[in-house]
Amino acid sequence: MHVCKKCLASFPNWVLIDGEQKNLSKRNYCLVCSPFGQHNTVKLHEQRKTSKDKRQYYQTYFRNRLRTLRGKVLEMLGGAVCCECGCDVEKILEINHKNGGGNQDRKRRSALAFYGSLIKGRLDTNDFNVVCRVCNAHHYVRDIIGVNGFSIKFDAV
After folding, report:
1. Residue 66 half-sphere exposure, CB side, CA atoms within 13 Å?
2. What is the pTM of this model?
3. Distance between CA 106 and CA 28 in Å, rounded?
């Protein structure tokens, strides 16, 4: 006698179905939970993952993957420190396109693809630097717009 993994009912090894003796010794489920001839190969006793569970898993996976790749890229570009003011708060550090064009680059590829291209050497690391958001805005105002006279100082607290 076997025990059904889903309803925990016991069922015999041999049963007469359509006038023939059928061997049920390799079955995990009784004939009520998994009718004969239905080819039920899924694990009925385990809770199936919903699409919401899968979406949450992949969101977490890709978020962690993105953080890992971003950390590698920051190390490749000189470490997790702003090259202009010395800020070391990683949440506000950005990868700056020295010659502009970051907006067009973001439209062409995802952050994951961008980081992968930098790591694999498809993009020249000399065209990028690590700056904080404040220094990146200063770079835009100073170099792109042409307004001078601002200075930035970072004091670690």
Report:
1. 11
2. 0.63
3. 52
Q: What is the pLDDT along the chain (157 residues), one digit of tens a residue?
A: 889 888 899 999 999 988 999 998 888 888 888 888 877 667 777 777 788 888 999 999 999 999 999 999 999 999 999 998 999 999 999 998 888 788 888 889 888 899 999 999 998 989 999 999 998 888 888 887 888 888 888 887 7
Residues contacting residue 23 through CB under 8 Å, at least 6 positions apart: 13, 14
Reported as type and span, the H/E element at residue 66 is helix 51-76
Type and span of the H or E element at 96: strand 93-97
CA distance 24 to 2: 9
